[in-house]
Design goal:
It is a single chain. The protein is of the alpha/beta class. It has 11 helices and 14 strands. The chain has an 8-stranded parallel beta barrel, surrounded by 7 helices. It has a 4-stranded antiparallel beta sheet with strand order 2-3-1-4, with helices on one face. Helix 5 links the parallel strand 9 and strand 10. It binds phosphoenolpyruvate (PEP) and manganese (II) ion.
């Protein structure tokens, strides 16, 4: 349930409510809106109904409303305004469409520095690149690990672009946090609940990708794990779900963008590279994602896609990425946003 405070509620009244909630063995999450404060109450307790009645009668409280959705803190009911997620100087969830670009995997210092320079010149706001790669086969290239993280950090120093990279378990998370500005929890780990909790206990911004077999509700409940630990800096990412057609690698569910935005206050971005698996489809689906209202894109770019150690068929050359940026600027402008 959520407690909606009166616009005139005092700090003391708000603190009194939080104390009452904690005494009842539940946790209180405060959202300060423009006009009023809302307190989300989560947890399980048989005294919840008694607590509800007593809160409703407390000074400064306007009303107490149940949240009917299974996800609470990520819901629009808890927070009606869009959340802005800040990563360095980059802000997700504003009128700007944040473009994250870079190679699927960090393969060498030269490769990542050259790509960072090129994507920055074309107007990208952030750099991506995997140092730990979740590969389908254990015999495929698994990433440069810490060496790759160092190259990413160097690329950030050189270009000023904040870096997002994946951590697949708690041990990697500790290491990745030392180098990256944002942590990617990949599609395969969307329901790794211990990793989600650890990510929630960190205060690093998180990029949470939808699992290929996950429903929208499951994605939102995965995000709820992170928020329930106190980390509200979460960006959601649609990256394609398992369909029956194998012309594309996955089926990019663009309807998830407006659905997620209706249900949740968290920013939503789209990954047309994993989503289609084919570089020729990345441009059209990027334009469509922007038109559908996505708050950003994450796109794979490689100096020589035909020589890439992972995901070669879906990576853009520098030239194709530059063209894509010019195209999406036009679409963004048409809907009153900018890149
Ligand atoms: C990636 O971004 O390279 C990646 C492996 O993403 P996903 O987890 O969406 O497959
Ligand atoms: Mn990839």
């Amino acid at each position: 349930m959520i407690v909606v405070m009166e616009p005139s509620a005092t700090k003391d009244q708000i603190e009194a409510i939080i104390r009452r909630v904690q005494e009842a063995g539940l946790s209180a999450h405060v959202s300060e809106g423009v006009t009023r404060t809302v307190i989300g109450i989560v947890g399980d307790s048989h005294t919840k109904e008694l607590l509800r009645q007593s809160l409703e009668a407390s000074p400064g409280v306007e009303k107490v409303v149940p949240i009917l959705q299974p996800f609470k803190l990520v819901s629009r009911e808890f927070r009606s305004e869009k959340t802005v997620v800040q990563v360095g100087n980059v802000r997700f969830g504003t009128d700007q469409i944040v473009v994250i670009a870079g190679p699927c995997a960090v393969e060498s210092r030269e490769q990542v520095l050259a790509t960072a320079k090129a994507v920055k010149a074309s107007g990208a706001s952030m750099l991506r690149g995997g140092a730990f790669k979740p590969r389908t086969s254990p015999y495929s290239f698994q990433g440069l690990e810490e060496e790759g993280l160092k190259y990413l950090a160097e690329a950030r120093e050189m270009t000023g672009l904040p870096v997002v990279t994946e951590a697949m378990d708690a041990r990697q998370l500790e290491l990745v946090i030392q180098y990256a500005d944002m942590i990617q929890i990949g599609a395969r780990n969307m329901q790794n609940y211990t990793l989600l909790r650890d990510a929630g206990r960190s205060r690093h911004p998180i990029l949470l990708k939808r699992g290929p077999g996950a429903t929208i509700q499951e994605l939102l409940l995965a995000a709820e794990y992170i928020l329930s630990e106190g980390n509200y800096q979460v960006v959601l990412c649609e990256r394609g779900i398992r369909g029956f057609d194998n012309y594309t690698r996955y089926t990019l569910d663009l309807s998830a963008v407006p659905v997620l935005q209706q249900l949740s206050h968290l920013p939503v971005i789209v990954d047309p590279s994993q989503g289609t698996g084919r570089w020729k489809l990345v441009g059209p689906m990027s334009r469509a994602a922007v038109a559908a209202g996505a708050d950003g894109l994450i796109i794979e770019v490689h100096p020589e896609p035909d020589r890439a150690l992972s995901d070669g068929p879906q990576q853009l050359t520098f030239e194709n990425f530059d063209r894509l940026m010019r195209e999406i600027r036009l679409v963004a402008e048409a809907i009153g946003r900018y890149v």
